[in-house]
Write the structure tokens for this entry.
Amino acid sequence: MAIKLENVGIAVRDLEAAIAFFVDLGLTVTGRDTVSGDWTDTAVGLDGNHARIAMLQTPDGHGCLELFEYIHPTAIESAPVRPNEIGMHRVAFSVDDIDEALAVAARHGCHPLRGVANYRDVYKLTYLRGPSDILVMLAEDLTKN
């Protein structure tokens, strides 16, 4: 059986703010829609499912995020995930210039949780909180320079 990762779905508080953040990091919006009806109730497992969605693609064409903002049922707030919690964890991106990526993130009010680490002179990396408290990892491959 062939299998490939289609996308990672992330529920957000503010779809436009989340789109702006990821587009500024370099992703491209490939589609937007508002979805509802029996098919979404069945697929998602929620009665009256109604959401605004956006699909975003990484520049290399391999990674895809589906961001969705619930209209109905009401979105449920939860505490932001911590790096050591079990379950869906983070979305990670390779970047050519981590300082530039962090400058973009800062324009959205998003900053590293602690700082930028150097892993064995192979990667510079950091975790930050993106829109809707999404945990985002940025990593720059130092061996490519």
About this structure: The longest helix spans residues 15-25. The longest strand covers residues 28-36. The chain has a mean pLDDT of 93.
